[in-house]
Amino acid sequence: MALPAEIDPDAAVAIPNYEVACALLNEAARGLNPRSVYVNGVAGGVGCAIVHLCHAAGIEIIAGVNSAVKCAFCVREGAIHTNVSDAAILRIPCRFASCTGSAPPLSSA
Fold first, then answer.
1. Cβ distance 17 to 46 under 8 Å?
2. Pairwise CA distance, residues 27 & 22, whole Å
3. Is 106 inside a domain boundary?
4. What is the pLDDT at residue 87?
5. β-bridge mates for residue 39, sequence order
6. How many degrees, rounded to 5, is the angle at CA 105 between CA 99 and CA 109?
7. Would 78 be classed as within a structural domain?
8. Is 109 a member of any domain?
9. How many other CB atoms are found less than 10 A from the CB of residue 48?
10. Backbone phi, psi, residue 61, to 5°
């Protein structure tokens, strides 16, 4: 199937990212109506597509990335909050709770 002339080939390479992002939001999260989502690795292709789709749907995005530069990128793309991930991945639920104003999860310790 040929790419229609009105579609920029550079933009077309992102189409699969949006297909996966759409499937994650509409199939994997079926029945959920989130007000906010945490997305790890937002600076990648699928993560960035999720941010764009959530932003268009009015869903707040909390972006997890591994550098301050990527945090700035995520905010430009539409993330409301950012979190620089590190080896302490277990802190993510508490960070999510602080961003959304919800109660932090119960500790299993």
1. yes
2. 8
3. no
4. 47
5. 63
6. 135
7. yes
8. no
9. 23
10. -115, 130
pTM for this predicted structure: 0.68
Alpha-carbon distance of 62 to 68, in angstroms, equals 14
pLDDT computed for residue 101 by the predictor = 67
Phi then psi dihedrals of residue 83, to 5 deg: -145, 120
Question: What secondary structure does DSSP assign to 56-98, as a single string?
Answer: HTT-EEEEEESSHHHHHHHHHHT-SEEEE--S-GGGHHHHHHH
**Residue 26 DSSP class:** I
Total domains present in the chain: 1
Q: Using pLDDT thresholds of 50, 70 and 90, give the confidence band for residue 81.
A: confident
Portion of the chain with pLDDT greater than 70, in percent: 75
What CATH number does the domain containing 65 carry? 3.40.50.720
**How far is C-alpha 2 from the chain's CA centre?**
31
**What pLDDT is stored for residue 91 in this prediction?**
58
Q: Three-state DSSP class for 38?
A: strand
- Residues 95-105 have a mean pLDDT of 62
Q: CA angle at residue 49 from 81 to 17, to 5 degrees?
A: 150
Tokens coding 104: 């932090």
